[in-house]
Known about the structure:
There is one protein chain. The chain has nine helices and twelve strands. The chain has helices at 11-21, 23-29, 37-45, 61-69, 122-134, 152-157, 173-182, 220-225, 243-261, and strands spanning 5-6, 31-35, 50-55, 73-77, 94-99, 112-116, 139-142, 167-169, 186-190, 196-197, 207-211, 228-231. By secondary structure, it is of the alpha/beta class. Helix 1 packs across helix 2 (23-29) and helix 5 (122-134) runs parallel beside helix 9. It is elongated, with a radius of gyration of 20 Å. It starts with a strand and ends with a helix.
Amino acid sequence: MTTEVLGPRSSALQHLRRLSGRRRARLDAGQFVIDGPTLVVEAIEAGVDVAEVYAEPGAPADAVAVARAAGVAVRDVEAGALAKVTSPVTPQPLAALAELPAPPGRSVLHGLVLVLVGVADPGNAGTLLRVAEAAGASAVVSCADAVDLWNPKCVRASAGALFRVPVLAAGDATEALSRLRGAGMTVLATTLDDAVGLDDVDLSGDVAVLLGNEAHGLPDDVVAGADVAVRIPMAGRVESLNVAMTGTVIAFEAARQRRAAAP
């Protein structure tokens, strides 16, 4: 029996192309794309529901073995085919089709939560997911005006954190604020003006940190609706930090305070 080798025009790989390029396609199908052997293995080990793996000649045998051992179907594809239907800058010889996870419940809204409001760059969003995991955050909330966290670029930038950190989708910032307050969280808005310095803010409780758009920051009404507006004290003539750096500084200050408060 001859094993079918998929080309870039096959229906399976055209499906990957649509999922790689369009948020609406991912939402409609309830699926997303994972590029590269390292991320595919991390997804499987994290319990992500991986539907199929696509392997070009020369794909790492150990990654293929992990997929097969997990009961995931592995399909052979032509050399160079994945580069034509997925989006990595550096073509990868292995990719996977995975199911979007069921959204977590409100129970994850405790401790430290990062909230993305209008964050547009997938690299920044992915970095904030990594920061959330590294700092021990309980969840990341993504508002509808933020980049899709299941965008392939964001999946790659998260370096596997997206598979392990609970992610909640919210509507606009007003809805997110309502959900966070309903869970008993204190809401902090990051801003530059009329704000409390980070050194004077208690981050040891149940705190949600709102992080805004790269160019415009948080809207004024969102800042006004938060419990506390916070700024990062800075020396020199620097006016602001990149949103991913802002989230990093605040998240690790929260982690430091939590360690200090632990019995």
